Amino acid sequence: MGHPVYRGEKPQLHYAGDFTWNSMSGRSVRLRSVPIQSLSELERARLQEVAFYQLQQDCDLSCQITIPKEFIPQAFGMPLSQVIANDRAYKLKQDLQRDEQKDASDFVASLLPFGNKRQNKELSSSNSSLSSTSETPNESTSPNTPEPAPRARRRGAMSVDSITDLDDNQSRLLEALQLSLPAEAQSKKEKARDKKLSLNPIYRQVPRLVDSCCQHLEKHGLQTVGIFRVGSSKKRVRQLREEFDRGIDVSLEEEHSVHDVAALLKEFLRDMPDPLLTRELYTAFINTLLLEPEEQLGTLQLLIYLLPPCNCDTLHRLLQFLSIVARHADDNISKDGQEVTGNKMTSLNLATIFGPNLLHKQKSSDKEFSVQSSARAEESTAIIAVVQKMIENYEALFMVPPDLQNEVLISLLETDPDVVDYLLRRKASQSS
């Protein structure tokens, strides 16, 4: 297909081929594989559509595929969105002393090629309860995930977030950023939603409970044999659960039993009414095993792109943690020559434990997915195989290759060339 070109008074914006774009400023930007968390909220929404189209056209999963809705699951009686909103409030409280708005505004003014510069007007951020970040400066992050940073840099070095954040004087940009999609493809409600999508990344939509449990176990439990199989104290787990439920700033310290924390993490995932991988995509995930081995990983990647951002980011953090646990499964010799006992939690064992809570169609009466019944035995084997493949390949699964990014930008170029130029400027600033 031919690629649209924007022509006007400004320098020409166009796709030059080989995943290289020329921006309105004349700068050449070559796309490269990036973590999905580094994409803007708008790009992630369009990536869902691109992935959905590719799954329909190129992948024979023998089932109907739908993009999961932004479900509001509950955990410990609390909506996941509220958990993340509480985390966001906690982080904002920590950042209250920081005064970086002026620097961020100046940076934005230097990048925007039109309109009057802002005169010390503070730019607001999205108030979406799921548009938050729960990381702290000491958090562990994936090698493929951008390092935690001050808010301005973390959000792509620009504080312009959505159309409503733009100054009235920048009417030309305001008009250009009226993000639109074909009328036949969206309802009025969906159009209104897209207009509010952020043009900058919103990293790590992960509940603090999940991240705290993972960090604690990474620090204190990697050498614990059978870490997820040994029993815990129901009383202590219930107490921790109630504290998180009330939104208390729970700090998991060394004295907290790793078995209690492991049980807490499993309960969190088990008690979600809609599983992390969503019921809508259950059959699609299972049917990836019917594909040729070389096609399975790429199809899993596309299905992960369909997940709501909060599910996707939480899944990434969980798989990152499980991968680290699996790397410590076997006995080994330390640098000082001492024998270190492995935790025996291979990727297969971990998939057996976590798989039924991450991927299922419905819960049994005791809130546990039964893996023993003969009727479910075959499906259980498939669930375990899918989750095991995710654990072993989590780093690749959450990277977005240049060809898919390219499709996202092309879809935006057809309707909103100024938006594409803005995104290219941000990508260029991140690369430099």
From TrEMBL:
Pfam families: RhoGAP
Cited Gene3D superfamilies: Rho GTPase activation protein (1.10.555.10)
Domain Rho-GAP: 197-398
GO molecular function, one term: GTPase activator activity
Residue numbers spanned by region Disordered: 118-157
Keywords, comma-separated and alphabetical: GTPase activation
GO cellular component terms attached to this protein's record: cytoskeleton
Gene Ontology biological-process entries: positive regulation of intracellular signal transduction; signal transduction
Keyword hit for Lipoprotein: no
Compositional bias of kind Low complexity: 122-144
Protein name: Rho GTPase activating protein 6
The species this protein was found in: Macaca mulatta
Source lineage: Eukaryota, Metazoa, Chordata, Craniata, Vertebrata
Gene: ARHGAP6
